[in-house]
Design goal:
Layout: H1 2-36, H2 46-65, H3 73-95, H4 101-143, H5 149-159, H6 162-172, H7 178-189, H8 192-202, H9 211-259, H10 271-294
């Protein structure tokens, strides 16, 4: 009878821990969803609305940069929330520490963002290489002296870099209002190097060999800018990976100890221990945020053409 009561108590405790894990994961997911959705409700402070809209804009831009037809801002947020819920529920159920639901949810959402960010970075590199190829091809066409800029753009629309053919085709199709066509193309591409190419075309007269030195200088500038940015991105990726590993090590340590049922974690199951753990997680989060801020790169700035 005592054995049955003991088993029943263990089963009840397990069910309570599972329910608590699901509840913690749901709360963390709801918090992320509320923070990642545009604020439309009345009565929300203006500063909070601005922060939420800024975060939402970043998610939309990230989803668009991945160049997946099925992925938009809301889909990305939904996937992040599902990953956050799964990670929070799993880690809380394994360790029995409700406090770890918050970093687990953040880690799940961050993992999804990391995949999408890597995809966006690949697409950005493809666009940059396409701009460099287009600039080089444009210079070579003008060096012959047999074509104007408009004719060279038409050639790029047919035989230019594949990622930019549609943009050059839309520009070449406009006999009137090409400045607006360039502006629309710059907005769609969203690449500072393409802005430089558009500026070089728009500020010069549309034809002649005098543009060859300009495009030669532009090719050299674009190449140098790409080399500097990619080297900086590589160093930034190494530093970010190191900071992520440093922050993730304590969580991994807790996970290993929980898997081994170590008695060293008994103190953290008490209210005082959980409060201490929560404070330490807050310190770790602040340190991680500070390190990421130090590693942020401004990158190349977009070229603004007020008359385009």
């Amino acid at each position: 009878m005592r054995k049955f009561a003991s088993l029943r108590a263990c089963s009840t405790a397990s069910m309570i821990e599972t329910a608590a894990a699901l509840l913690a994961g749901l709360c963390a997911t709801a918090a992320i969803l509320a923070a990642r959705t545009p604020a439309t409700a009345t009565g929300v402070p203006s500063w909070l609305t601005g922060v939420i809209r800024k975060w939402w804009s970043r998610e939309v831009d990230l989803a668009g940069g991945a160049a997946w037809s099925w992925l938009d801002g809301r889909t990305l947020v939904a996937i992040e929330c599902c990953a956050a819920l799964a990670a929070a529920s799993a880690l809380t159920a394994i360790t029995g520490l409700i406090v770890l639901a918050v970093p687990a949810a953040a880690g799940g959402a961050t993992a999804v963002r990391a995949v999408v960010t890597a995809r966006s970075r690949v697409q950005q590199v493809i666009r940059q290489d396409a701009v460099l190829d287009a600039t080089r091809m444009l210079r070579q066409l003008l060096e012959t002296g047999a074509t104007s800029v408009n004719q060279a753009i038409a050639v790029l629309a047919e035989r230019g870099p594949v990622p930019l053919r549609a943009e050059f085709r839309a520009i070449a199709a406009r006999s009137i209002g090409r400045r607006q066509a360039w502006k629309d193309a710059r907005e769609r591409v969203g690449e500072p190097l393409f802005d430089m190419l558009a500026a070089a075309v728009l500020i010069q007269r549309p034809g002649g060999g005098e543009l060859v030195p300009l495009f030669a200088d532009l090719e050299a500038s674009v190449t140098a800018a790409q080399e500097v940015e990619r080297e900086a991105r590589a160093l930034q990726a190494q530093a970010r990976s190191a900071s992520t590993i440093i922050v993730a090590l304590p969580i991994a340590f807790f996970l290993i100890l929980s898997t081994l049922h170590s008695p060293y974690l008994d103190a953290f199951h008490q209210p005082a221990g959980q409060a201490f753990l929560l404070a330490m997680l807050g310190v770790m989060a602040a340190g991680y945020w500070w390190m990421r801020r130090l590693l942020e790169l401004p990158g190349l700035q977009r070229v603004r053409l007020t008359d385009a």
